[in-house]
Amino acid sequence: MSTSGVRVRIAPSPTGEPHVGTAYIALFNYLFAKKNNGTFILRIEDTDATRSTPEFEQKVLDALKWCGLEWSEGPDIGGPYGPYRQSDRKDIYRPYVDKIVANGHGFKCFCTPERLEQMREAQRAAGKPPKYDGLCLHLSAEEVTKRVDAGEPHVVRMKIPTEGSCKFVDGVYGPVEIPWEAVDMQVLLKADGMPTYHMANVVDDHMMKITHVARGEEWLASVPKHILIYQYLGLEPPVFMHLSLMRNHDKSKLSKRKNPTSISYYSALGYLPEALMNFLGLFFIQIAEGEELLTMDQLAEKFDPENLSKAGAIFDIQKLDWLNGRWLREQLTEEDFMQRVLEWAMENNRIRDGLKLSQSRISKFGELPDLAGFLLKSDLGLTPEAFAKVKSTPEEILEVLNQVQPDLEKMPEWTIESIEAELRASADRLGKKLKVVVAPLFVAISGSSRSLPLFDSMAILGRSVVRQRLKVAAQVVASMVGSGK
Description:
Enzyme class: ligase
EC number: 6.1.1.17
Oligomer: single chain
CATH class of the largest domain: Alpha Beta
Low-confidence stretches: none
Number of domains: 3
Family: Belongs to the class-I aminoacyl-tRNA synthetase family. Glutamate--tRNA ligase type 1 subfamily.
Function: Catalyzes the attachment of glutamate to tRNA(Glu) in a two-step reaction: glutamate is first activated by ATP to form Glu-AMP and then transferred to the acceptor end of tRNA(Glu).
CATH superfamily of the largest domain: HUPs
Catalytic activity: tRNA(Glu) + L-glutamate + ATP = L-glutamyl-tRNA(Glu) + AMP + diphosphate
Radius of gyration: 26 Å
Distance between the termini: 61 Å
């Protein structure tokens, strides 16, 4: 992938479980590179120091590798334009920011977070979109120097033209025009010296010689800021291509609040990575009915970036199930099938750890399916009757589930110890004993009130599967509230 001048990248932020949307954008870039005999690069954008973690970065690498995507340069393998992790590049960005300020295109802003929030609240109350009001834009050089020398915290913002509009040609949407009045005076450098996403993104793409930036359509509105930064630095911008977002059947944005979105969820449920990539790749090609089953090489051959749909990519789980079934039946030999099943069962030591926990809890092997089978199920088939032995009322169970879900979501690490600590903290917040909180969770996670130890089971299943099971349980219990069940 390196004999042409085409260089593309996927640049995820390691702030949570890798999203199927990341795989969708990564696959487009990967196929674009293959089609053009170019180079596909992985870059980790971890400028959000409060949410980025090494655990999530590793999950990004593991998830994209599971998908069958291979990069020529990245944080794990290096390359000629590294480092490929933004936190390792912190000292690179400051000279670029200083150049923008020195040339009169940026300014230091001393507004406090409290002042900015009051400003935004006032703008929203007046029915205006919230954006910086320019208070620090006209500070004198003497005033700025005085406040900087006094150690006053500040950020650096970019100046925005006051008239006209930004016109550019997008590789998918064609000619686009966005008025400058709709563009905010973006922060370029934060008070801690780290660049914002926008600043680092432009500098890194320039230094890594990225020729085409293909990303989700949610970034379309940011293009004027990026083009301005390129102009302020005297640099040539890449070709921008904004892909339609993946959506649910009702056209709503695909989000973890509604549906499972983590790549690890689909891996844990036993989907083949080839089938998932096949499914996502169909959004980028034009084929006749009956030609849906395609390998990565076949996808690259049929890939046509000149003929992309703007209508939106519908994440149809039934079609994914159908494709996965065809892959299992038609593309795997019996030996392949058995090997894949064993690999799936052993993923993250699921079976090994489950059997360890089961050994002291059974009197014969035949009891294993009932005791530990939930570790391998894609759907527990949860019903209101499953909660019959839980002594709490449906209202109390729903309160527990609604408290626990967001509490677990914010955990930076997913271990037995951290899960137990967080659930104990959840119980304290609810003013309930731990056993009262744990009882309905046993049912939500395993489908039964008799199961393997809860904290261990949650650790084995993984964050994405636990998230979905708690969501399903909350829906079941919500149907019980007021029904007398």
